[in-house]
């Protein structure tokens, strides 16, 4: 019973599921009902009322003492195995979340419920609680609401999971052990760990950048499916399969959220794929014709997401149109509110055929859709699943809320893994967001708000929609109903939806976006549009002094930025981030050192590394690899999940010939992002220099598999290592790819002659059978006999290689044609008239052609029995020599080449 109640609270079921139990007079049912109704504050008040104890703060002077005293109090009065303790910890986290992320704001004075202190001293101690949330020099947002709820919640979860505290973790960094959820873990323990990961992500969201041990611990908890297994296996047998599936779905969604929060977004795809199969969610990105303006008569191609849920859970209808945030109209005399699509498949047949010719057959999969993509794509109409083809693109059905979350998470993954402001990427994201906003019915309040927010972010990048985008962003910030000092958009107090349960329902499956972060994003948009004053006003209102300084620095006013940070450091001398940013502005290493001393701020060490890697000219310093590696090592010891730092660390180690260090660094890079082609390539480079060719070959195989940018250096290394290991199929593949990449700029210079000669040698030493060619033979013939002739302009050696292959293929007429082209290439060299070397090369080519006429001329020709390759081969041979004699007469008489030419003529 206890586990089942906790499981319902974990997945935020509707409170109706407990209606049969509400008559039972147990605190478990009462607390679970409170939480499912979004009334976490009632749980806190009830528990503290029963406890009837407060924490006395008379002798507390700093944040560490305050946290230690609070932990000691909690350990005394709350039992580790008590379910009421778990409800209490959850209620604290939910209350903090509501007052900082979702609204509406709860006016209860929670600080005075916990602590015994005078009204005059409460502000001081509340500031100490906020200071206690600092992670490696990064202070928490200084005016967040109810820091006491988050701090006590984190401490409670540490007690409930019997974990080493992460507060002041820089003092006990060697004691931190990452949690591992083992098979057979008690279900309630698993739930406590799950909630702890949620609390840790909330903690990370109140600091500027993920840092410290918190990301590793959160990732450790969410990395194993045993977390969900432990809960599901301990549920009563009568629990239906649908609820069990819901737990697994929530787990995979939060696994993705965790990866996004700690900047390991490249690990998200497996979980997204699994939850998509688990919920049987069908969606695809495809093209359809649409009209976008009021004056278009002809539809034009556009992107659209076709999506349909297999079922809708009972909570999917928990929001009505009046409950949801206001969707601002696009007040435009030109643009339609939304595109009007033609029915799928109405594109003219001849245009579909034209598109079909452009498809790369090697990229196709069995059903035409690559499911292992962040955004599965149907590039042909027949590839769209039948159920989706039947949808009306202008009025698609409502989606299950978990499926809406999947789409939103894919938006975040695509954004974090794609180039900024890429037009095609923004079109894809717009298609996803539009699918959510314009569906029949309405999604949950939080999901709809987030969709409107993402649409606004995209719209502020376009001149025609920027007005609606900014207005919508401002409106959404204000509609949260949290503490806000000014309003731009008038709103009646009764317009705010007070259903806290609806707002909290899916907050833990989406990346946390506190209200001040939304405000800061709005300020960034103002700044990008040149509205500097409005941006700075927002930062000032939010007390985000570092961001205000960065804002001034970005527009070149470094003096004003310096003044803001200097004042900040006078008031808060322990703000390590401010020291580091001021160091970046002044390029002063002493400030970065100070930042590291004050708070172990990792970006300070990264800045020091970059400074000593490329010292300013006026510094009098020389590049020092040992110092650079030392600073980067310090940074990585504090925050080992930084891909960029590991990558820089590896590059410096490779440059300084510290190959073992480079191998370790790039190994960590590919463990964080196994799709990064350059990391794989650099790892292979370190192995090559250690003469570990097999390891290098494996790395390069991965590198070329993810090389979407077609980097010729990666392919060249792959070709060289494959050549040395006699992996001839891969050598041929790399050689073809290099030609494809370089041909537009280098032409025949893109061909690696020694490699192609070796490939031809391997090919012609095998037996040719027209009906039984293996993979290597078939591809090598296509490359040599089709690709190379389209490139050759001045290289006679290439024509001779083609001739060898044509002769091996028993096509002597084609071989003779290649010899003729090789001779013409040499003959037309302008240097023949001025350089004896070029003249001798031409004589050599002439001799080769005459020999080809002699050996091939009388063979069976192209048209079978009775035909010859060259019936008048003797006449052509004499004519060739005669023409060359005429060209060289008077210039090259008496030279070695001339004598050989005379000898060849006499033999004919």
Automatic annotation (TrEMBL):
Region (Disordered) location: 307-326
Keyword Lipid metabolism: no
Comp. bias intervals (Polar residues): 308-319
UniProtKB keywords: Repeat, TPR repeat
TPR repeats: 677-710
Keyword Ligase part of the UniProt annotation: no
InterPro entries: TPR-like_helical_dom_sf (IPR011990), TPR_rpt (IPR019734), TTC27/Emw1 (IPR044244)
PANTHER family linked: TETRATRICOPEPTIDE REPEAT PROTEIN 27
The name this protein goes by in its record: Uncharacterized protein
Species assigned in the record: Maudiozyma exigua
